[in-house]
Amino acid sequence: MTKLNTPLCDDVISGLRIGDIVYLSGTLVTGRDDVYSRVVDRGMKCPVDLTGGVMFHAGPIVRGQRELISVGPTSSIRMEKWAADFIAKTGIKMMIGKGGMGGKTAGACSAHGALHCVYPGGCAVLGAGQVEKIENGYWLELGMCECLWVMQVREFGPLIVSIDTQGNNLFAENTAYYASRRDAGIAPIIESLKRGLL
Fold it and tell me: Which domain does 84 fall in, by range?
């Protein structure tokens, strides 16, 4: 288990590998499709300096503009089409979400020394409990779930490294590994069916 503080430094995160578990303290910014599209497709300058920063793919529920009710992860693969350019443009060092991301993101993580981590799905109330306060909100016209919320967190996690700074991709490797074992795994079942034992 590794405890990280923002802003993230290359010499700290470069030693992390897929499967490692980390907890994050410091500044966490939420954002997803609309934020990525604005920065990448429309060339808008992100109102938050993300250099060395962390983006949580989440649609939080916020009462007023300061009271966080819940914050759970959105499926990160939704950001795949923008993530590589987003990393290059913003200098972000970690993205967090639910599930894995693809080859373009893995390549960008390798090229720019960034990470993707997974936060457990179904833990939105736990996540809110790990947020100390909401500092600000930007692009509020996008709506509560789509805008940028800047939060202070303490030991936010557990986060599982799914893409490391070498471009290794936990989800891709697991998919390949289990696919390679599929035929051997089902062979005894097929043989039992043929012999009428099942």
Answer: 2-172
Total domains in the chain come to 1
Q: Is residue 157 part of a domain?
A: yes
pLDDT tens digit sequence for 48-104: 999 999 999 999 999 987 899 999 999 999 999 999 999 999 999 999 999 999 999
Q: Which positions ≥6 away from 161 have C-beta within 8 Å?
A: 16, 17, 18, 19, 20, 21, 22, 115, 116, 117, 170
Distance CA 57, CA 72 (A): 8
Query: What is the value of pTM for the model shown?
Result: 0.88
Q: Is residue 122 included in any domain, yes or no?
A: yes
Q: What is the pLDDT of residues 4-30, one digit of tens each?
A: 999 999 999 999 999 999 999 999 999
Residue 72 lies in a domain: yes
